[in-house]
C-alpha cells in the first residue's frame, strides 16, 4: 500500500470548555511522533455535521479515513470542536449557529488549546460554512493563526447553483431555529454535484456517525450563506491562505473564489483545484489529494527572502 495511506488509529481525548457561556465540546488527537510537534491544527466543521464524523471518521481497518489520525501520525497535534448547536456541544433552541457564532466558538477553542500549554499560532482548516467560520475567526484574531486553509468556501455566493436552490427556502430557514436531518439529505450532499465521487467505504459510516449525534441541524449558516454574504474581507487575512476547491463543487464557484484569492494580501497563498472531488473532500475517492495539499501547505519551508531585505 502506498505509504501516503498509512496512519495509526490514534486515541482521542475529550475536552469541555465554554463559548458565550454555553458548553463547547472539544476533541483532541495528539501527535504520534518522537520529537517536537510539527504544528497544531484546528479543524472547523460545516453546516450539516458535527466535527468528529467530518475529521475523525471511523472506518473499520482504515484509520486513514480520519484526517486527524493521518496528521497525528505525521507529527501534528490535532484538534476539532462541535460548534454550539451541533454534536456534543450546547444545542438549545436559542442557538441559531451563525457564521459569527462559529467564529466565536473557534476563538473559545483556540483559547482552551492555548491554556493546555500549546504555544504559538495555530494551523487552521475549515470546510464549507466551516471555511467561513475559520476565515472570520482568522480575520478577527490574526495573532492566533499561522496558516489557514479554506475548503469549499463561498465569498459572495456568485455563481453557486446550490445556494440558488437554497434561497427558495429562505423563509423556511428563517421561520425556525433548526431543520430536520436524515440519511436522505446526507446522501444528497454526495450526489447533488457529481454522483460517483464519494468513497464507497466512507459514505455510509459517515452518514451513520453524523446521525448518531444529531437528528436536526441549526439554520444559521444556511441563512447567512443565502442572505448575508459576503461575511469575510479577504484584504484583512494577512496570514498565508490556501483556497481549496473540488472540481465539481456546487457551492463554491471558481469565479467567486478567484476574485477572493486575488484580494488576499500575503504573497504566500495558493489556489488548489482538487480533481474528481465534489463538496465533501475528505469523504471522496480522491480524499488523499486533499490531505496532500493540506500537508504541503502546512509544511511549507520558511521564507528566506522578503521584498525589502538587504
Automatic annotation (TrEMBL):
It comes from the Bacteria. Gene3D superfamilies: alpha/beta hydrolase. Residues 60-154 form the Serine aminopeptidase S33 domain. One of its GO terms (molecular function) is hydrolase activity. InterPro entries: AB_hydrolase_fold (IPR029058), Carboxylesterase_BioH (IPR050228), Hydrolase_4 (IPR022742). The keyword Ribosomal protein does not apply. Pfam families: Hydrolase_4 (PF12146). PANTHER family: HYDROLASE ALPHA/BETA FOLD FAMILY, PEROXISOMAL MEMBRANE PROTEIN LPX1. This is Alpha/beta fold hydrolase. The lineage of its organism: Bacteria, Pseudomonadati, Pseudomonadota, Alphaproteobacteria, Rhodobacterales.
Amino acid at each position: 500500500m502506498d505509504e501516503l495511506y498509512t496512519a495509526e488509529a490514534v486515541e482521542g481525548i475529550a475536552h469541555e470548555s465554554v463559548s458565550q457561556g454555553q458548553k463547547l465540546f472539544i476533541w483532541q488527537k495528539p501527535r504520534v511522533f518522537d520529537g517536537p510537534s510539527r504544528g497544531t491544527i484546528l479543524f472547523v466543521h460545516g453546516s450539516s455535521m458535527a466535527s468528529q464524523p467530518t475529521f475523525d471518521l471511523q472506518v473499520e481497518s482504515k484509520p486513514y479515513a480520519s484526517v486527524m489520525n493521518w496528521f497525528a501520525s505525521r507529527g501534528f497535534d490535532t484538534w476539532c470542536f462541535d460548534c454550539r448547536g451541533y454534536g456534543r456541544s450546547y444545542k438549545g433552541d436559542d442557538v441559531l449557529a451563525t457564521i459569527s457564532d462559529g467564529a466565536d466558538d473557534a476563538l473559545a477553542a483556540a483559547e482552551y488549546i492555548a491554556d493546555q500549554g500549546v504555544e504559538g499560532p495555530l494551523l487552521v482548516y475549515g470546510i464549507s460554512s466551516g471555511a467561513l467560520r475559520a476565515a472570520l475567526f482568522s480575520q478577527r484574531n490574526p495573532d492566533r493563526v499561522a496558516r489557514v486553509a479554506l475548503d469549499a468556501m463561498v465569498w459572495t455566493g456568485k455563481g453557486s447553483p446550490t445556494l440558488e436552490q437554497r434561497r427558495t427556502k429562505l423563509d423556511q430557514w428563517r421561520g425556525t431555529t433548526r431543520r430536520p436531518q436524515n440519511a436522505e439529505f446526507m446522501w444528497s450532499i454526495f450526489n447533488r454535484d457529481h454522483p460517483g465521487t464519494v468513497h464507497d467505504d466512507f459514505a455510509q459510516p459517515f452518514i451513520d456517525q453524523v446521525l448518531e449525534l444529531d437528528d436536526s441541524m441549526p439554520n444559521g449558516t444556511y441563512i447567512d450563506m443565502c442572505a448575508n454574504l459576503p461575511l469575510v474581507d479577504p484584504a484583512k487575512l494577512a496570514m498565508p491562505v490556501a483556497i481549496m476547491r473540488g472540481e465539481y463543487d456546487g457551492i463554491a464557484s471558481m469565479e467567486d473564489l478567484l476574485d477572493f484569492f486575488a484580494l488576499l494580501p500575503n504573497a504566500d497563498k495558493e489556489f488548489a483545484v482538487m480533481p474528481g472531488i465534489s463538496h465533501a473532500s475528505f469523504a471522496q475517492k480522491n480524499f488523499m489529494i486533499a490531505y496532500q495539499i493540506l500537508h504541503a501547505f502546512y509544511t511549507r519551508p520558511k521564507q528566506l527572502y522578503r521584498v525589502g531585505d538587504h
